[in-house]
Amino acid sequence: MSDLDLARLQFASTSIYHFLFVPVTIGLGLLVAVLHTMWFRGGNPDHKRLTKFFGTLLLINVAVGVVTGLIQEFQFGMNWSAYSRYVGDVFGAPLAMEGLAAFFLESTFIGLWVFGWNVLAPKIHLLTVWLVAAGAGGSAAFIMAANSWMQHPVGYTVDQATGRPELSNIGAVMTNPVFLWGYAHVLTASFVTGSVLMLAVSAWYLRRGKHTEVFTRSAKVSLAVLLPSVFLALGIGSHLGVIEATYQPMKISAAEGQWETCQPCSFSAFQIGGGNNDQNPTKIIEIPHLLSILATGTWNGEVQGMNELNAQYQEEYGPGDYVPNVFVQYWSMRVMAYLGSLAALVAVWGLWLVWRRRLPTARVFLFVATWAVAFPFLMNTAGWMLTENGRQPWIVQGLMLTDEGVSTSVGRTEVIISLVVFYGIFLLLGAVNVFLMMRYARRGLELEEPEEQLDDDQPRVPALTF
Amino acid sequence: MTLPDLWFLIIAFLWTGFFVLEGFDFGVGILHKVVGRTDTEQRVAINSIGPFWDGNEVWLIVGAAGIFAAFPGWYATWFSAMYLPLVLLLVALIARGVSFEFRGRMEATRWRQTWSWSLTLGSLLCPLLLGVALGNLLAGLPVDSTEEFTGSVTDSVTGYGLLVGLMLTALCILHGATFLAMRTTGQVRTRAQRAAALALVPAVLLLLAFAVATPAVSGAPALRGTAPAVLAVVVVLAAALLVRAHRDGWAFTATAVAIALAVVTLFANLYPNVLVSSTSAADSLTVTGTASGPYALKVMTIVALVLVPVILIYQGWSYFIFRRRVVGPPTAAPPDPTTGPTAPLDDGVLT
């Protein structure tokens, strides 16, 4: 494995790991805010218990999400210093804005929310949880704006003296079509993640017949969020494919393993073989016209093959191989799309059971819904592999190659040390996190607390939370 | 003032804010086993920073992201040069961050003590390593004319960097102790006052050494280089008097100003460089040399000028909301006989 491969492996691993927690924070943040609002409006103590229960799951995730996010913030400079020096003028701005506009909001108000029970006025306390949700969702916006610039650089001019891109139009960066659709896709996928997680936990309880009434409520709330989110995520994702096909045609052709230009183009459900050294895999169940629709949004659209695109790029950018890892592209696209569709089926099935008033006793559904907890995490990971692997060999599409971006002053030993250290920490954190979440989920709801009668002269002191 | 200069000031402000705020977090993390003998007392110490630590840590993230955006070359060279120390720093930050969340989730003593130790060690390493990294900016790292670090891991720890690291660690411990004295009651408060008195000695000595060494290393003009250093020493001596007088609120204010002045001293002496090259003075990274273009800086200036006051208001509000002293559950923490059961609740108001 080359030094470049090691640096890429580290960035990919740390990003994927970080993004296991991010969508939970965004999605569960919204759902906890919804539950808190329901309690605020209706005063039903079940909603308060659910708010606190899922709030704690949210907190455990936020802690791991925040600390793994620190690695991301440092890693650009540590491992990708040539890239950072080259793009900082444009790429740094959204990162700095993320901190100022969103991360401060999320981190400050989560402290206020957690310690604010019985301290803040109920209306203000409710506002804090919505600001946490807004901060979490807002963070993702700036990160996606930065990432989208790597996929489709806009709003910059190249400085003649340094040869580096300089920001010239922040409006263009923040209205980059790849960003707008990519962000909407990430946001809806995060809502899918949060609601599937809540559904799975609720289903786990319903299967055991514990707190049936309370967890039927949370199952309904999660299904009500899941259904629109999952169909929006699928629809937006489909349009994102058309946009990416415009700016990064190689990414989409590779996702189908389409070596030769075609019109109209079919989509294969599966294939045997394939990859960069096998241009003629056995495709199974070909659906005519579907690739044309997915890539161009038209029935008979033309999709350029990788061989033709590669030849074009060689003419434009010089000799080299501009084809990403086709095997990863083909399968990550399918894992993402198929699991997303399964999540949609779960949502429809669950809501049908709710409508028939059979949800708490539907054994098969509850079993499936419990295990569906794995879907969003696999789906999100596959989605990012599709996006980032499909950008290769570029680190910034058309401007800088990945192998030009790596830190030359960081040696192989150093990267191996950090890789081992990060993997060790991730395994430990993951194990503790899963252990705590399961233990906590199993312990169940707290007994109903007596409503505290505080007279106004008495100072309101927050409970020991940590 | 030019835009790059303004951004150098903003960066200095962000790092100063970070050490003033997260500084006492680090101190509380280091001291929570010292001031808390029982589990409840340790929890009281941890909960004194409970609502704040997460928001405080964002100052570091924005401090780093601000350098990335405003001075990409500085960010790239500094972070890649400090590779292994930063890996260790990340481990320390992760360890302490999850310790807060994990520690209270199980009752078992061994579980709680494991995360207590990880909180202590993580909190101890953070200011030390950050100080080393900051000190190196001024002490100089082997950097060539292409802004690339040419040294090895042994070059990433300098004598002056180590001094800054130790000085910041000592100040964080002192700052954490004055914060605990202000935010707690009874035994925890008494022990925090005692810890502050003990922490004063190394803090004053190390700050003195820093105040002498820094202008000597930088050679900056007296008004910019020496004046803030002298002020820092004066303030830390004032803190010493206030700690001994048990004026908790004022002692905390003094340690906050002292740590702020220490960081300001460092940045004031660094200017107009951002990272000194030990290979050749001509290769030092400078404010103007590494700054982003005028348009990017202008956009970010507007964003920062609009948002920083808003952030200060809501973070300040959060400190106002949780201004009262933290007390444990009534059964586990017997009222302090010297002050009575309710009195401490009223004199802990931050003003």
Number of domains of chain B: 1
Which assembly state applies to the chains in this document? Answer: heterodimer
Within the largest sheet of chain A, what's the order of strands? 1-2
CA-atom Rg of chain B in angstroms: 21 Å
Strand order of the largest sheet of chain B: 1-2
Query: In terms of per-residue confidence, which ranges of chain A show pLDDT below 50 for 5 or more consecutive residues?
Result: 448-460
**Alpha plus pi helix count of chain B:** 14
**Which architecture name of chain B does CATH use?**
Up-down Bundle
The helix fraction of chain B, in percent, is over 70%
Count, helices of chain A: 15
Walk me through the topology.
The complex is a heterodimer of chains A (466) and B (351).
Chain A: H1 3-42, H2 45-79, H3 81-115, H4 122-151, E1 156-158, E2 165-167, H5 170-174, H6 177-208, H7 212-247, H8 249-256, E3 267-272, E4 282-287, H9 290-296, H10 306-317, H11 326-355, H12 363-371, H13 374-389, E5 394-396, E6 400-401, H14 402-405, H15 412-443
Antiparallel strand pairs in A: 1-2, 3-4, 5-6
Helix pairs in contact in A: 1-2, 1-4, 1-6, 1-13, 1-15, 2-3, 2-15, 3-4, 4-6, 6-7, 6-12, 6-13, 7-8, 7-9, 7-11, 8-11, 11-13
Chain B: H1 3-35, H2 39-49, H3 53-70, H4 72-81, H5 83-103, H6 109-139, H7 159-183, H8 186-218, H9 222-225, H10 227-244, H11 248-270, E1 273-275, E2 285-286, H12 287-290, H13 294-321, H14 343-346
